[in-house]
Specification:
Layout lengths: L1 H14 L2 H11 L5 E5 L8 H11 L1 E3 L1 H8 L3 H5 L7 E8 L2 H14 L3 E5 L1 H6 L7 H8 L4 E4 L2 E4 L3 H16 L4 H14 L8 H5 L5 H9 L3 E5 L13 H19 L5 E3 L5 H4 L1 H10 L3 E3 L18 E2 L6 H9 L1 H15 L9
Parallel strand pairs: 1-3, 1-10, 2-3, 3-4, 4-7, 8-9
Antiparallel strand pairs: 5-6
Length: 351
């Protein structure tokens, strides 16, 4: 029901002309670039509808080409005949469904997509660490788990949820990749090392090198780097490990793909998670630019190593995409927050 309500609100913005007005107004303010941030390209998602909308209203570009244009002299921008605003579709992590469904949609609609790859996961084929807790708890056959000196009775909902939170927290906040991987192995052992892989699970695994190389041959897919093993760079205890994760991902991807790589995406991507040493490593490695997950639009004045993106879920209706890409949705949500903050506490609904 919530999705229906949000889509209805977005539809009101779209069919009232407000989204078109916001788009026109932003174009009048000067050059800008919208970078969208997806992760999955699932079969039951709406990526194809999203791409249909985008190619109708924007100039959909590869990230490198769009940024070359953004930071180019004004005379190069004036020479274009297509006056629509540029937009970039990025997908983080390199899920297998980016290959099965993302490549198909991009090729059919001739719409560029940029994907940020994690070479360590491509090589290992392991589940991404952020999926580990949900997978283990869904697939385990044990009724009791011993982990980190605690016993968790999995038929007890609160204890099961507590174990999920522990696993998620430990893998997310690990101070090194070795610490993270060691904990994952202990968690798997505690939960009986479940190995069942469903068709849906496979779509959530990383693509392999053969699939990445096939995509790289398509003119509609381009790649960037996303570290070697996807640690949160700002959480790593050793600056040398942050430098290795950035530099090695650049080296391996260039060797495997056979051409230079210019763009990077910080894992998770808020500024404190990118971290001082992570940002410095991106500079020193020689990337031309890097994207965060900080919300916003980019102009020629934006720091090229702290580019902003707008998060989009592949399951959202294209009307939500339209509202978010135009900036209308952000204004709407900010207005709601202000109104809520200014509403006297005794008039708010309580439960």
């Amino acid at each position: 029901m919530e999705k229906r309500i949000l889509t209805f609100i977005a539809a009101c913005f779209y069919y009232s002309g407000l989204i078109h007005l916001a788009y026109w107004w932003k174009r009048r303010q000067g050059p800008y670039l919208v970078i969208l941030n997806y992760h999955r390209a699932q079969e039951n998602g709406e990526l194809r509808d999203h791409l249909l909308y985008l190619r109708r209203h924007y100039r959909v570009m590869h990230l490198d080409a769009a940024l070359d244009e953004l930071y180019a002299p004004n005379k190069n921008r004036r020479a274009r005949t297509d006056r629509r605003a540029p937009i970039v579709v990025t997908l983080d992590d390199g899920y297998y469904d980016n290959y099965t469904h993302g490549l198909a949609a991009a090729s059919e609609l001739q719409t560029p997509i940029t994907i940020f790859l994690i070479p360590g996961y491509i090589e290992s084929g392991e589940r991404f660490w952020w999926l580990e807790a949900d997978y283990l708890l869904a697939q385990t056959q044990v009724s009791e788990a011993h982990l980190e000196g605690q016993v968790y009775h999995l038929d007890n909902v609160s204890e099961r949820e507590a174990l999920g939170r522990l696993i998620s927290s430990r893998v997310r906040n690990a101070a090194s990749v070795a610490e993270r991987e060691g904990f994952i192995q202990r968690a798997r052992a505690a939960l009986g090392n479940p190995t069942r892989i469903t068709a849906e699970d496979k779509l959530a695994l990383p693509m392999n090198w053969e699939e990445a190389l096939e995509m790289d041959k398509s003119e509609w897919i381009s790649f960037g780097a996303h570290t070697m093993h996807h640690p949160i760079l700002g959480y790593l205890a050793d600056p040398a490990e942050a430098a290795y994760e950035v530099h090695e991902s650049h080296t391996v991807l260039e060797q495997r793909l056979g051409h230079p790589l210019r763009s990077f995406a910080y894992p998770v991507g808020w500024l404190d998670q990118a971290g001082y040493y992570g940002i410095r490593a991106v500079h020193e490695t020689g990337f031309d630019w890097a994207v965060t997950t900080v919300y916003g639009f980019n102009t020629p004045d934006t720091d090229p190593y702290l580019l902003r993106r707008i998060e989009i879920d592949v399951h959202e209706h294209w009307l939500m995409l339209a509202a978010k890409a135009s900036g209308v949705w952000d204004h709407f949500t900010n207005l709601i927050k202000i109104m809520t903050r200014n509403t006297p506490a005794h008039t708010r609904k309580t439960t």
